[in-house]
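Q: 4-coumarate--CoA ligase, please. Structure only.
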Amino acid sequence: MDGLVRCSANYVPLSPISFLERSAMVYRDRCSIVYGSVRYTWRETLERCKRLASALTQLGISYGDVVAALLPNIPALYELHFGVPMSGAVLLTLNIRHDSTMLSVLLRHSEAKVIFVDFQFLDIALGAIKILSKTSTKLPSIILVLDQQSMHVGGAVSNPSNYLEYECLLAKGKSDFEVRRPKDEWDPISLNYTSGTTSSPKGVVYSHRGAYLNSLAVVLLSDMGSTPVYLWTVPMFHCNGWCFPWGVAAQGGTSICLRAVSAKDIFDNIAKYKVTHMGGAPTVLNIIINAPPSDRKPITWKVAVMTGGAPPPSQVLFKMEELGFAVTHAYGLTETYGPATVCAWKPEWDLLPADTRANIKARQGLNHLGLEEIDVKDVITMKSVPPDAKTVGEVMFRGNTVMNGYWKDPKATKEAFKGGWYRSGDLAVKHADGYIELKDRSKDIIISGGENISTIEVESVIFRHPAVLEAAVVGRPDVHWGETPCAFVTLKSGHSTTSEEIIKFCRDRLTHYMAPRTVVFEDLPKTSTGKTQKFILREKAKAMGSLSNKTASKL
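A: Structure for 4-coumarate--CoA ligase:
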């Protein structure tokens, strides 16, 4: 059309950097970060992030370079979410539970030039760099991050003077640094490696545009007002904290940082700072509902909790409500910037029985406002499955909050986007109202005697047993049925039960072929984000060997 022009007056590449700049003006003296005795205002946070960006450029960091971080939920990691992109670089947040070998693999693959390391994890980082040095001369520089609450290392680092320290680095930066904005809003802002619950980790690339849109989306779906107080129980290294570091900045909220998560710390901080919002995988919710009375504090206001990472058992959701938490169930993957769907609540559901409400809330729902579309499709025909709550298909995404692709892996990227949709590998059904309900990952579904068994459904029943703290179900080889459900169960402290009791409990509530034939009592292997590592459990079940024909016929 004549008379139209795209220029700097009407087009600026979207970037969450702008959230910080605005909050530093609108909420300049409001508290932005709390970490023990450490406190910053939004004006101070902007200045610190600009100094950080300036200092990084002095170290030779330029557009597109990768800057890594091996840090827990402390102020430095929050600041890196802005300071690194302000320097034009790409932020890589690393899982603090990685060992030196895995860390070396990710540092080599990402080609990170700098790594910020918390004093508690310095030995792991040094071990990774030692491994790297055997095959490469290009090693990342270490920036040591000490404990800001005490500014000493407590003997954890023998020679801290050997490393450039974080606060000293900031002191070298300029507060009037001219921020390096993205040249294109599709430029990478961060790199996230998948958790490896199903396969080898892959590097997922987020863009400035996607981060901007998903940050606003999580603010909306969590009903975050203008003065939120956010408790950091979601690891900031996982999907960039579900985009909440940027989202909290958009609202001028206050971040309460926690180095480690425990029931006592959660309740203490909620009470002390009047926390309004928090998040976490179902394992965090489990910590809360099973907290001993001595660790609990009464909550007289609603604390909004977003849960995701794994389908939450309905019983867990119900107990959270009893304690005064308002739970929002979101669903997504690393490839969708974390939360991508929400089980948006409908007022008419308030009249339903409590168990029914909890079952509905456990659904994954529909796409949030930042995502264009979600569907459940037949993987061959690419047609949508009927909304009959029975027909299983693969969950697929399309929109601006889907990753750019996998870092240095065009083959995997092409496969993931085949057919013009991102293929999640998750299996689900669609209800009459369009809400989707996850049934399993494609690799987790159990096929027994030709019947598909959803491990999520079986786990949900096991969770109802009063002695059960956690449960995970995988397939065990079976000479007669092909495979049968094998349950790995963790019991609550002070409780006991038997495998026969668990099996009977399930048979009383499920079709018999869906009930587990084997029950193993042990702690479940987890990623740092609370996801059960089912590939480990599958290997354990496989190592048990096949059930005999005689045993199978009896069952």
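A: Brief note, in case it's useful. The CA atoms of residues 239 and 337 lie 6 Å apart.
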